[in-house]
């Protein structure tokens, strides 16, 4: 599909949006609209087999995610989103690098509810911020399994008041290996299935 290739080419070299100029951001936004217009799955939330699984962020316009890279002595690494349709759970995970032996991670667990064929409401429930070594972090898969099992970590691990921490996300494109979302703060998200 040409629109998909055009989007992936536009995203290339932007380091998930960190290096995107204003002109590049506009080109990516235009490529996203073109791809959304040819969405093979017009009702993404009914295609749970596509939505369910492990995703890696390849582009975002979200200032809150991109600003992680601006923390002193740190650089944002890979960013993952794991979706478990059977439990209506979302797990977001950002790997942080910086000084040797001080690699960190930031994770948020949430529940979601479908409110239309494209929109989910998200209620954030738990946040975990810590050093990978102290947490015993080996991989996103292992870490998410530990969260799902209810494990507590040697980290800043605290519940979030889900009545206050809410948002929504429109899934505007999904196929076997690519997903596009538009968040309540106007942010764009492009993810690939891992």
The CATH class label is Mainly Beta
Number of strands: 9
CATH-assigned fold name: Lipocalin
| CATH architectural label | Beta Barrel
Write down the secondary-structure element order: HHHEHEEEEHHEEEE
* Overall residue-averaged pLDDT value: 93
How would a textbook summarize the main sheet? 8 strands, antiparallel, barrel
Task: Tell me the domain tally.
Answer: 1
- As a percent range, the share of strand residues is 35-45%
Number of helices: 6
In short:
With 194 residues, the chain is an alpha+beta fold.
Describe this structure in words.
The chain is α+β, with helices and mostly antiparallel strands and 194 residues long. The protein has a single domain (2-193), classed as Lipocalin (Beta Barrel), CATH 2.40.128.280. 24% of the residues lie in helices and 40% in strands. The chain is built from six helices and nine strands, in the order H-H-H-E-H-E-E-E-E-H-H-E-E-E-E. The protein has helices at 2-11, 22-36, 48-51, 63-66, 132-135, 140-148; strands at residues 53-60, 74-84, 89-98, 104-114, 119-131, 156-159, 166-174, 178-183, 188-193. Strands 1-2-3-4-5-7-8-9 form an eight-stranded antiparallel β-barrel. Helix 1 (2-11) packs antiparallel against helix 2 (22-36). 29% of the residues are buried.
Set out the fold topology.
Layout: H1 2-11, H2 22-36, H3 48-51, E1 53-60, H4 63-66, E2 74-84, E3 89-98, E4 104-114, E5 119-131, H5 132-135, H6 140-148, E6 156-159, E7 166-174, E8 178-183, E9 188-193
Antiparallel strand pairs: 1-2, 1-9, 2-3, 3-4, 4-5, 5-6, 5-7, 7-8, 8-9
């Amino acid at each position: 599909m040409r629109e998909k290739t055009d989007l992936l080419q536009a995203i290339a070299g932007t380091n998930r949006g960190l290096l995107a100029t204003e002109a590049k951001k506009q080109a990516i936004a235009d490529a996203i609209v073109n791809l959304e217009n040819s969405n093979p799955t017009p009702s993404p939330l009914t295609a749970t087999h596509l939505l369910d699984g492990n995703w890696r962020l390849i582009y975002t316009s979200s200032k809150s995610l991109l600003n992680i890279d601006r923390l002193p002595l740190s650089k944002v690494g890979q960013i993952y989103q794991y979706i478990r349709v059977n439990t209506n759970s979302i797990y977001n995970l950002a790997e942080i690098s910086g000084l040797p032996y001080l690699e960190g991670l930031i994770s948020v667990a949430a529940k979601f509810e479908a409110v239309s064929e494209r929109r989910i409401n998200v209620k954030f429930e738990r946040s975990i911020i810590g050093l990978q070594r102290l947490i015993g972090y080996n991989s996103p898969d292992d870490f998410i399994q530990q969260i799902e099992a209810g494990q507590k970590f040697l980290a800043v691990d605290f519940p979030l008041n889900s009545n206050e921490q809410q948002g929504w996300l429109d899934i505007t494109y999904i196929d076997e290996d690519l997903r596009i979302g538009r968040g309540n703060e106007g942010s764009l998200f492009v993810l690939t299935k891992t």
